[in-house]
Amino acid sequence: MSDKQESSNGTSAAQRWLGYRPEIRVLDCTIRDGGLMNDHMFESEVIKAIYDACLAGGIDYLELGYKASKKIFARDKFGDWKFCDEDDIRRIVGDNETPLKLSVMADAEKTDYRTDILPRSESVLDVIRIATYIHQIPTAVDMIRDAYDKGYETSCNLMAVSTVQEWELDQALDALAKTEVDVVYLVDSFGALYSEQVQYLTRKYLSYMKAAGKEVGIHTHNNQQLAYANTIEAIIQGANRLDGSLAGLGRGAGNCQTELLIGFLHNPKFKIRPLLDCIQQHIEPLRQDLKWGYDLPYMITGQMNQHPRPAIAFNEQDGPKDIVAFYDSMTEKV
């Protein structure tokens, strides 16, 4: 079909590629996912710079970190953004009287959500994102109800979906579709998925969520350099909630890059220049110590559909590293 020809819905090829989908929302998870590389010990200056950049860049949501249980995680061993106490958040953003919505992640079975998540009327936060593995769905459902009752927008990140049996996934999606959750995210925790799988899974998620009036999101990791491509595939299939991080800063191989993503979306509300400035001034200087992004160990764990934990440990070793020996050790585990 030529650019002048029209598709069945009356939209020309040129209009489809030059236009944009206004219902799409972007969440930047630089602080939360990046914090997994430094125990959430960011300087306040960096947090404020990311906040300012996302605000100026037109990003819809900024995820500040976790609401982790202080009974499980020692307060003196992690930075403020592991816990996201209200005073620490307000120290950076004040009352956040801006269009930028603020989010935190609450891990199932690792969050004292009934006490540590305040009512929405007492918090500067807008969104609670529940992260859950398949066997934790009953807890996640309860956490969704708790956050909803407190007045928050809610979402659920169903983690490590590449390891889940299809019948289990169907049951989980059916259960989540019956909750008050606003968004359910397809999460490629290990960076193991390929575009065909993302296509299939996004359609599956939509088949459960669309009828229930809920959105589907996508959160990718870059172990096989597919985070951006897989996010685009999910967009094409109908996902409207997208995760990214500045320069891809995130656990291990990192995430889909926010700056790449907003360039693809074509929505004029997004501005790349503030993001580039923040990356140059504050994110890239962290790379020497945090060492996130694609490399061979992360590729190997991604191809083997394994948690990147062994690759992170390998990269943290001192002295010469034998990538072939690492590959052999990983092969023995499969």
What does this structure look like?
With 334 residues, the chain is α/β, with parallel strands linked by helices. It folds into two domains: 20-289, Aldolase class I (TIM Barrel, Alpha-Beta Barrel); 299-333, no CATH class. Helices cover 41% and strands 13% of the residues. It has 15 helices and eight strands. It has helices spanning 13-18, 30-34, 44-56, 86-93, 113-116, 137-149, 166-177, 195-209, 227-237, 258-265, 273-283, 287-290, 296-303, 309-315, 323-333; strands at residues 25-28, 61-66, 101-107, 127-132, 153-158, 183-187, 215-219, 241-244. It has an eight-stranded parallel β-barrel with strand order 1-2-3-4-5-6-7-8, surrounded by five helices. Helix 8 packs parallel to helix 9. The N and C termini lie far apart (46 Å). Residues 1-8 have low confidence and may be disordered.
Approximate shape = globular
How many domains is the backbone divided into? 2
Distance between the termini: 46 Å
- CATH fold title of the largest domain: TIM Barrel
| Low-confidence runs | 1-8
Order of helices and strands: HEHHEHEHEHEHEHEHEHHHHHH
How much is the average pLDDT?
A: 94
CATH superfamily of the largest domain: Aldolase class I
Determine the strand fraction and express it as a percent band: 5-15%
The name of the CATH architecture of the largest domain is Alpha-Beta Barrel
Highest CATH level, the class of the largest domain: Alpha Beta
Give the helix level as a range of percent: 40-55%
What profile does the largest beta sheet have? 8 strands, parallel, barrel
Work out the number of β strands.
Answer: 8
Structural class: alpha/beta
- How are the strands of the biggest sheet laid out side by side? 1-2-3-4-5-6-7-8
How many H/I helices? 15
